[in-house]
């Protein structure tokens, strides 16, 4: 395969690479950088490509490996080593300590709010919360599915009102 043919086929793959690059990076600018780096690596390693094989898979593999290498490199840069006697590995981005007392108070308030719900609303709500589907709740409680949906909606609305102080916390 000539360099011109290789380059033409490589350029043809760019539109297919864009969604994959965005899926990996979750950022438009980083996705474009990843595509550019992938194209550079593919073109500089064209002699390693075997004619007759799947070029698209080859380029996608280059992109995935490039992304993983860059990710690992950035993770290593964020980690530093304490050179004291204990040799702790510390990740500099997670130095925040949290106190679980607030979570405990919130959980107690949530449980109290659910207990204060009328049984008419709390039973379908708790069944839904435990993973039952609307039609299963309807069958078990022998009520129409529309009533199930309405009772769950009203339970959520009432819980939202009674737990309003926590709205800006989570």
From TrEMBL:
<feature type="domain" description="RNA polymerase sigma factor 70 region 4 type 2">
    <location>
        <begin position="108"/>
        <end position="159"/>
    </location>
</feature>
<protein>
    <submittedName>
        <fullName>RNA polymerase subunit sigma</fullName>
    </submittedName>
</protein>
<dbReference type="Pfam" id="PF04542">
    <property type="entry name" value="Sigma70_r2"/>
</dbReference>
<dbReference type="GO" id="GO:0006352">
    <property type="term" value="P:DNA-templated transcription initiation"/>
</dbReference>
<dbReference type="Pfam" id="PF08281">
    <property type="entry name" value="Sigma70_r4_2"/>
</dbReference>
<keyword id="KW-0731">Sigma factor</keyword>
<keyword id="KW-0805">Transcription regulation</keyword>
<dbReference type="InterPro" id="IPR036388">
    <property type="entry name" value="WH-like_DNA-bd_sf"/>
</dbReference>
<dbReference type="GO" id="GO:0003677">
    <property type="term" value="F:DNA binding"/>
</dbReference>
<dbReference type="InterPro" id="IPR013249">
    <property type="entry name" value="RNA_pol_sigma70_r4_t2"/>
</dbReference>
<dbReference type="InterPro" id="IPR007627">
    <property type="entry name" value="RNA_pol_sigma70_r2"/>
</dbReference>
<dbReference type="GO" id="GO:0016987">
    <property type="term" value="F:sigma factor activity"/>
</dbReference>
<dbReference type="InterPro" id="IPR039425">
    <property type="entry name" value="RNA_pol_sigma-70-like"/>
</dbReference>
<keyword id="KW-0804">Transcription</keyword>
<dbReference type="InterPro" id="IPR013325">
    <property type="entry name" value="RNA_pol_sigma_r2"/>
</dbReference>
<dbReference type="InterPro" id="IPR014284">
    <property type="entry name" value="RNA_pol_sigma-70_dom"/>
</dbReference>
<feature type="domain" description="RNA polymerase sigma-70 region 2">
    <location>
        <begin position="15"/>
        <end position="76"/>
    </location>
</feature>
<comment type="similarity">
    <text>Belongs to the sigma-70 factor family. ECF subfamily.</text>
</comment>
<dbReference type="InterPro" id="IPR013324">
    <property type="entry name" value="RNA_pol_sigma_r3/r4-like"/>
</dbReference>
């Amino acid at each position: 395969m000539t360099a011109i043919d290789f380059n033409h086929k490589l350029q043809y793959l760019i539109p297919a690479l864009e969604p994959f690059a965005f899926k990996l990076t979750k950022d438009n600018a980083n996705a474009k950088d990843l595509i550019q780096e992938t194209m550079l690596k593919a073109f500089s390693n064209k002699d390693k490509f075997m004619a007759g094989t799947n070029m698209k898979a080859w380029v996608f593999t280059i992109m995935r490996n490039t992304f993983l290498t860059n990710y690992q490199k950035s993770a290593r840069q964020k980690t530093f080593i304490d050179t004291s006697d204990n040799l702790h590995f510390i990740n500099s981005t997670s130095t925040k300590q949290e106190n679980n007392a607030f979570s405990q108070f919130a959980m107690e308030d949530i449980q109290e709010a659910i207990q204060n719900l009328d049984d008419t609303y709390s039973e379908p709500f708790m069944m839904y919360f435990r993973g039952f589907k609307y039609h299963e709740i309807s069958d078990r409680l022998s009520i129409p599915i529309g009533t199930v949906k309405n009772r769950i909606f009203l339970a959520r609305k009432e819980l939202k009102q009674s737990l309003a102080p926590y709205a800006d916390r989570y």
